[in-house]
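Sequence, please.
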């Protein structure tokens, strides 16, 4: 009963999304793979943090088909690599057929998703890329600064704390 209720809720959510924005896009990781490919091409002309940001964004999009394939019991590295190769050859609707494990034309199979869902995926990917850039900044800053000593600590060793550096004497 719970599974049927959840399935009905999911179906109604999809209908709501299509009514709100009546546009569809190929499923099976096709849209994410195509966006990632185009972003990587765009990044080739960039430098510095802009390039890094775009590459992280593409990487976060590529994680979607990898997760799809892994959840279907497929090898995510192999399947995602093959999917990206199809897109590099111009097959913009190529996606993962989770039942066969093959890369096929999602539009021909009728495997589609509402554009509104993809917009949320892109938003999540952007947030992930932003988080990764912030982590890189923190790591870079930590490498540049020596660690701070707590207030009151002597510059070298523990000699000022009870004699021979072995701690306080009682």
């Amino acid at each position: 009963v719970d599974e049927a209720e959840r399935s009905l809720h999911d179906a109604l959510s999809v209908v709501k999304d299509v009514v709100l924005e009546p546009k569809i896009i190929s499923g099976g990781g096709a849209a994410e793979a195509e966006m990632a490919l185009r972003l990587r091409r765009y990044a080739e002309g960039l430098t510095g943090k802009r390039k890094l940001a775009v590459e992280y964004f593409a990487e976060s999009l590529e994680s979607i088909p990898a997760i799809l394939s892994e959840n279907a019991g497929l090898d995510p590295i192999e399947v995602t690599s093959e999917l990206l190769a199809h897109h590099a050859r111009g097959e913009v609707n190529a996606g993962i057929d989770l039942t066969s494990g093959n890369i096929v034309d999602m539009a021909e199979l009728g495997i589609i998703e509402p554009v509104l869902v993809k917009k949320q995926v892109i938003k999540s990917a952007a947030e992930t890329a932003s988080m990764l850039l912030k982590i890189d900044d923190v790591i870079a800053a930590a490498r540049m600064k020596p660690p701070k000593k707590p207030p009151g600590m002597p510059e070298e060793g523990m000699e000022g704390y009870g004699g021979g550096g072995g701690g306080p004497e009682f």
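The chain has one domain: 2-144.
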